[in-house]
Write a structure and sequence with these properties.
Distance between the termini: 42 Å
Number of helices: 10
Number of strands: 8
Radius of gyration: 17 Å
Strand order of the largest sheet: 1-2-4-3-5-6-7-8
Length: 278
């Protein structure tokens, strides 16, 4: 596959979004950030941050429900795959990601928003809520990585071949190992295949927040944990989230795996999210 195949697959996924979706490029000091916007203009804002390597297209099964009552802003994370281009200041660390997200919210005219992130996107969302709590009205974390517990070493070892020398076969084998089954949606499978040819500039690693930082978080939070995740110890993630964020609503999804959120549990996931965000 080639880079053009990735963008063609991206566009094919976007055509499945609600008809009112518009795409904007928000200028930031780090370059332009692609954001897909849908839902009523008067709706409460909700900004979505995807997991690593999946882009904003990962929300294709969620945006229709979420955009009924919310003005949804789905972002391609700077430094990762997608249409956001890091052709300005280089991303060097977590502080740059926070400044980038500040600029995205400013560019969208959002003084405050609900934030929802999956995996790496959840780590960014949590870090941002600690960085700028007055700008985050509600926080939803979907099987968050490196937030409450570290990754399983076995997961990292399995992921390395697909990360260092990506091929369709390697990526499919890795995802099959984690999820136990191929993606149910053939369009999403094709999109995931296409990412093996996509270019990313630099994905910024985020350290796990200190317990003191988490205990000081005042943003209303929902943590959804995939019980069958092989990314980390799901029971430890849930227990630590309950301990460190005692006011948070922590829900364990018994049949979910890390990489099937949010694409293959849209009905249950959308219900939990819309109830929390209401």
């Amino acid at each position: 596959m080639e880079q053009a195949d990735f963008f063609a697959a991206y566009d094919a996924m976007l055509r499945r979004w609600p008809a009112d979706v518009t795409s904007v490029d928000v200028p930031t000091p780090y370059g332009s950030t692609r954001v897909h916007v849908c839902g009523p203009e008067a709706g409460a804002p909700l900004l979505l941050l995807p997991g690593g390597g999946t882009t904003s297209m990962a929300w294709f099964g969620n945006v229709e429900d979420l955009s009924r009552a919310h003005r949804v802003y789905a972002v391609d994370v700077m430094g990762d795959f997608g249409h956001s281009v890091n052709d300005g200041t280089r991303l060097r660390g977590a502080a740059d990601l926070m400044t980038w997200l500040d600029a995205v919210l400013d560019g969208l005219g959002l003084g405050e928003t609900s934030l929802c992130g999956h995996s790496y996107g959840a780590a960014i969302a949590l870090r941002y809520a600690l960085h700028a709590p007055r700008r985050v009205s509600r926080l939803a974390l979907l099987d968050p990585t490196n937030c409450f517990a570290g990754p399983n070493p076995g997961y990292l070892l399995r992921a390395l071949p697909a990360l260092l020398r990506p091929t369709v076969a390697r990526q499919r084998a890795f995802l099959l190992w984690e999820t136990g089954r191929p993606p149910e949606d053939p369009g999403w499978q094709h999109f995931l295949d296409s990412t093996t040819a996509a270019a990313r500039s630099k994905v910024v690693a985020l350290r796990r927040p200190w317990p003191k930082e988490l205990r000081g978080c005042t943003v209303p939070t929902l943590v959804l944990v995939a019980a069958r995740s092989r990314t980390h110890d799901a029971r430890r993630v849930a227990a630590r989230a309950r301990d460190l964020l005692p006011e948070a609503d922590v829900v364990v999804l018994p049949d979910a795996t890390h990489h099937t959120l949010p694409t293959e549990r849209p009905a249950e996931l959308n219900h939990l999210l819309t109830r929390f965000l209401a």
